[in-house]
Specification:
The chain has helices spanning 7-12, 25-30, 37-54, 88-105, 116-131, 155-167, 183-192, 205-213, 273-278, and strands at 15-22, 59-65, 70-75, 139-146, 172-176, 196-197, 235-236, 243-244, 248-249, 256-257. By secondary structure, it is α/β, with parallel strands linked by helices. The strands form 3 sheets. Strands 3-2-1-4-5-6 form a 6-stranded mixed β-sheet, with helices on both faces. The longest helix is centred in the first third of the chain and has 18 residues, at 37-54. It is globular.
Length: 293
Amino acid sequence: MSPPVPSKLLTDDVSLIMVLIDTNPYFWSSIESNFTFAKFLSHVLAFLNSILLLNQLNQVVVIATGFNSCSYVFDSSISVSPRAESLLPKLEEFVENDESLSQDNGSVDGVGSSLLSGALSMALCYIQRVFRSGPLHPQPRILCLHGSPDGPGQYVAIMNSIFSAQRSMVPIDSCVIGSQHSAFLQQASYITGGVYLKPQQMEGLLQYLLTVFATDLHSRNFLQLPKPVGVDFRASCFCHKSTIDMGFICSVCLSIFCRRQKKCSTCGSVFGQTQTQQDPSSSDLKRKTPSSS
């Protein structure tokens, strides 16, 4: 009978990494360099195998993030093969199903955004199940391997996931691929205490992943990890789904609008109605004064 595993080992050295892989075909087809999705996947598989080799108790869960859907494609705790290459058949099946959904929904203008909000929600749900499994559990964190542009329509759902991860003390690491930064992931990593990185040389992606994201949370206290130069905290309005510098906020549900609205499209509150009801000076009624006797 094997000896019990110390609780300190489970809390300090053992990691649960939720890896979110962006499989958006419109993004990968728009990249002009020779760094294809196949090359990207080879770097990711080598990184995942390294995580599993660092500690036999480490756990890796991979969530594929597509244009129309997201799904679990690998879980090292229940996989028959301990190597990450076993996720390839499910990943290929997921990509085919996601592309078929895109064809059914019609053409897509531009690159399009992947379903990052859904993948973050699935990762947090899995982590909550781990938390409730018992007092001894690995240290969870989320790693987003993302390249698609931000989808303003997912702003509310993504921010809710960010604050939920912050409350659960789950760092969100971000490795952004492509030519532009991600404002959503910049905020996610900054708020949750994760690491945001945009590699300059994509051919050395594996080296970036191993030197920055392979270490456990306890070891990060002794390393000099990359720090964000600047974080874009701008929000997206709920009316036109565009990024704004200044706007109007509903005092009831905190919805954001780029223009003044008469009624909140989210909760239905009528702006100015409360002030009219509570402020007697705003009414046309004359104040009655007591008669002197």
